[in-house]
UniProtKB/TrEMBL annotation:
Coiled coil regions in record: none
Chain intervals for the UniProt region annotation (Disordered): 40-81, 227-246, 255-320
Source organism, top-level taxon: Archaea
Biased composition (Low complexity): 259-276, 284-302
Matches recorded under Pfam families: DUF7282 (PF23951)
Database matches in InterPro entries: PGF_CTERM (IPR026371), Slg1/2_DUF7282 (IPR055706)
Keyword Lyase belongs to the record: no
Record GO cellular component, one term: S-layer
Protein name: PGF-CTERM sorting domain-containing protein
Alphabetically ordered keywords of this record: Membrane, Signal, Transmembrane, Transmembrane helix
Keyword Glycoprotein: no
Length: 342
């Protein structure tokens, strides 16, 4: 026979136990999930003794998305202390890829990787975060999207004075980067690079040069990734061109610079200096000697009985003394003749 008091006590204890199991926050029976421990995907929230948790960045549908290209980033936020090491897991098929990250001062974390460059579009995966081997985030569904590295359009143009800036018509980048302008080809010398361009589409991107464009030049616009993530152009060796099937993404244009105005040099009239012809030396002429005057042959003239020899006349070049002597001779002859007549 049972004791009435004992029966009452047993009933009270049973009621108390039933009430305790309905108290919020009570330890769940193995295999059950408390209603407040379910994430937005319906997956169990991770629980740790210190309440550590983390979330990953997702699209509007709550999925983690990656692209099958280089430099893909996966990250999120956490409430653990800055500097804490975490592990981001991406499980595809039976393969689990893990990345170690460190929590930043603002509570964010991220990892950038090329590990998915060869994956096919549409691949499904699962992602989560752990600390020291314990999961502290929900398990997220994820999908691999097609990687579009970008595009660039560079049209022919004429630059304005002083000719040190060109305009790239459009730039589309899947990840942040730059557009450089090179001389002659996609491997030519870099003349200048743009400021940092965030992922997305950009129009009328200016690129400044250190030298002016000379005449008509073939210039090439090339897309670059921000390889070191500092959002600052360093060099083509550090911020490398974006590769596509072993090539780069570029577009070429003919750019007309300012035609330099030629400097006019005053013309100098050249007057030929004429060298005077040498004055010919007069040829010495020999003066013809005056022709000699023939002297009449002396004649013998007989006057009366006396015979006298006529004197010879002098030449024209002789002195006048000969003429006077001749006159005297004539006069003497006349006198002699007159005296004989007497």
């Amino acid at each position: 026979m049972s004791h009435p008091f004992g029966t009452a006590v047993a009933a009270l204890l049973f009621a108390a136990l039933a009430t305790a199991t309905a108290v919020p926050g009570a330890v769940a029976v193995a295999g059950s999930v408390p209603a407040d421990a379910v994430d937005s995907h319906g997956a169990p929230e991770a629980t740790t003794p210190d309440g550590a948790n983390a979330t990953l960045e997702t699209n509007r549908g709550g999925e983690v998305t990656l692209k099958n290209g280089p430099r893909q980033t996966i990250g999120g936020e956490t409430n653990v202390a800055p500097g804490t090491n975490l592990t981001v897991h991406v499980r595809k098929d039976t393969e689990n890829v893990a990345f170690d990250v460190s929590v930043r001062e603002d509570g964010t974390f991220a990892v950038t990787t090329d590990a998915f460059a060869d994956e096919g579009s549409g691949l499904r995966f699962t992602a989560w975060v752990s600390r020291n081997g314990t999961r502290i985030s929900p398990r997220y569904d994820g999908m691999m999207l097609t990687y579009d590295p970008g595009s660039v359009t560079f049209a022919d143009q004429r630059v304005e004075s002083p000719g040190r800036t060109v305009v790239v018509d459009s730039v589309v980048l899947s990840d942040g980067g730059f557009v450089s302008v090179r001389q002659g080809s996609a491997n030519g010398s870099v003349l200048g690079a743009s400021d940092y361009l965030r992922a997305g589409a950009h129009e009328n991107v200016s690129v400044d040069f250190d030298r002016p464009v000379r005449g008509n030049e073939t210039l090439v616009a090339v897309l670059h990734r921000d390889s070191d993530g500092d959002e600052r152009w360093d060099s083509p060796e550090r911020d490398r061109p974006i590769p596509v099937d072993g090539s780069t993404i570029y577009d070429a244009a003919t750019v007309a610079g300012q035609t330099p105005t030629p400097t006019l040099t005053p013309a100098t009239d050249t007057v030929a200096t004429q060298t005077p012809a040498p004055t010919p030396s007069p040829t010495p002429t020999t003066a013809d000697a005056p022709a000699a005057t023939e002297s009449p042959s002396p004649s013998t003239e007989t006057i009366g009985t006396a015979e006298r020899t006529q004197p010879s006349a002098t030449t024209g070049s002789g002195p006048g003394f000969g003429v006077a002597v001749g006159l005297l001779a004539v006069l003497a002859t006349a006198l002699l003749t007159a005296s004989r007549r007497d």
